[in-house]
Amino acid sequence: MMNEDSVLELITQALTENRIIDKVQKTEEYKRAKEEEGKAYDLLSSDLTDEQKRRLDDFIGSTTWSAAIWERMAYQQGMRDFLELLKSLL
Q1: H or E segment at 10?
Q2: Structural domain of residue 69, as residue ranges?
Q3: Residue 5 lies in a domain
Q4: Residue 34 placed within a domain
Q5: Half-sphere exposure of residue 20, counting CA atoms within 13 Å on the CB side?
Q6: How many Å apart are CA 49 and CA 82, to the nearest integer?
Q7: How many separate helices (H) and strands (E) can be counted in the chain?
Q8: First CA to last CA distance, the chain
Q9: Do the domain assignments include residue 11?
Q10: Full-prediction pTM beyond 0.70?
Q11: Closest by alpha carbon to 76, among 2, 1, 16?
Q12: What distances in angstroms separate CA 22 from CA 10, 31, 48, 53, 56, one per listed residue?
């Protein structure tokens, strides 16, 4: 039997993988931010040794992963809050 958290995990995955990602990637503001991110990374990494680049990439990967977890949990909490609001209105 699926619990509420399992259902929210499935909904979150479906929405983020399909609708949200597609919408964000089409946004001009996001495209500009990604371009600036790339420029800043290239400038920074051009001054680093191979070992320093590896460490930087490891750091970026770890922070990206933790941010993704935070965002997923925040989205799921928003879904929980929305479901509770709907229940209270019925």
Answers
A1: helix 4-15
A2: 25-89
A3: no
A4: yes
A5: 10
A6: 49
A7: 4, 0
A8: 25
A9: no
A10: no
A11: 16
A12: 18, 12, 34, 30, 28
What does the angle CA 23 – CA 7 – CA 80 come to, to the nearest 5 degrees? 75
pLDDT greater than 80 at residue 8? no
Vertex 21, ends 18 and 26: CA angle to 5°? 115
- 12-41 pLDDT tens trace: 777 666 677 778 888 999 999 999 999 999
Assess contact for 54 and 42: CB atoms under 8 A. no
Q: Is residue 64 part of a domain?
A: yes
Nearest alpha-carbon partner for 12 in 67, 71, 66, 76: 76
6 and 77 in contact (C-beta within 8 Å)?
no
